[in-house]
């Protein structure tokens, strides 16, 4: 009998390799989409902090009128529409513009002596991604809610002078609670 010189792969072997590669690609894509989602949330928080820093700079430099300056226990609400960032745009990391429910809240938490200001942030984009009122230094990407931020108990809209804001802080990467200060009365609202 004559021996057949066999080179290459059979069709079954090629199909097996293709199936294995498809399974590996599915696993890789699933893992990567989780990382991308996390990166978007972290970028959302970073942008919120940039807005807070810009508002802080304007506040410290006296760019807001004296009649809206918060007295003790009061807060000034600044719409992000009025804040120009040095870099970036007024679009979230989810590719949506921010809504009118995006604010920087400057709270005068002075008990005695010199004024002490704390900064709280609420951000929402047109796809309803974001977070409700949270203390700036407790923000975490895991606190960003996708597609339904208005259902969160710390989300507040229709902020107006004389109204009250409930203040919250992040307690872990995924939970928040009402701040010790609890609430503040709005001394003024700066909108665009």
From TrEMBL:
GO-annotated biological processes: establishment of competence for transformation
Protein known as: Type II secretion system protein
InterPro entries for the chain: N_methyl_site, Pilin-like
Major location (coarse): other
Ranges that cross the membrane: 12-36
Compartments (UniProt record): Cell surface
A GO CC annotation given for this chain: cell surface
Alphabetic keyword roster: Competence, Membrane, Transmembrane, Transmembrane helix
Highest taxon of source: Bacteria
